[in-house]
Amino acid sequence: MRNHRKLLFLGAICVVAAGCGIPQAETPKASATTTVGTEIDDTVVTTKVKSALLANAEIKSFDLKVETRKGVVQLSGFVDNQAQADLAVLTTSGVEGVSKVENGINLKVGKETVGNAVDDGIITAKVKSALLENPGVKSLDIAVVTRKGQVQLSGFVDSQAQIDQAMVTTRNVAGVTSIGNEMSIKK
Questions:
Q1: CA 124 – CA 140 distance, rounded (Å)
Q2: Distance CA 38, CA 57 (A)
Q3: pTM of the model
Q4: pLDDT digit string (tens) for 12-44?
């Protein structure tokens, strides 16, 4: 229980700290806005989902990203097989506060080597840096996962224009072999 409280507290701190991040260029605002209460609720849901995924030994949850907006949970990343993906979705849908699950999980293809993992870490860092440099992209809203040069972008963004900008920016990063778009427009 003590760790649960720490996770909730850290989640709330992350929400507050996100507002103090790197300044982003002004972009057209989506019609739907959230309140601080909703942001905290979403952080709590994200924490509960991550905890539920970690508690299940059948799911390799360290390879998954979890994003939440107004109770809609977006799962992305890579797993070994379809059974793990299905179990992750089922586990997530059973978490209190989850209204919908968007499944953006991909299956791993082939064996990953240590060299692939290092290269993927470098590509991820380059993509994140390029997104940060692009004033048309709210990069803090986008999660980046890379496996064998395949980059997966996920998260909730303000507009299709931001999705398009993120895709073009990512495509121009050296080492990116393909891009999976799991981003959704905020509602």
A1: 14
A2: 30
A3: 0.67
A4: 444 444 444 444 444 444 445 667 776 788 899
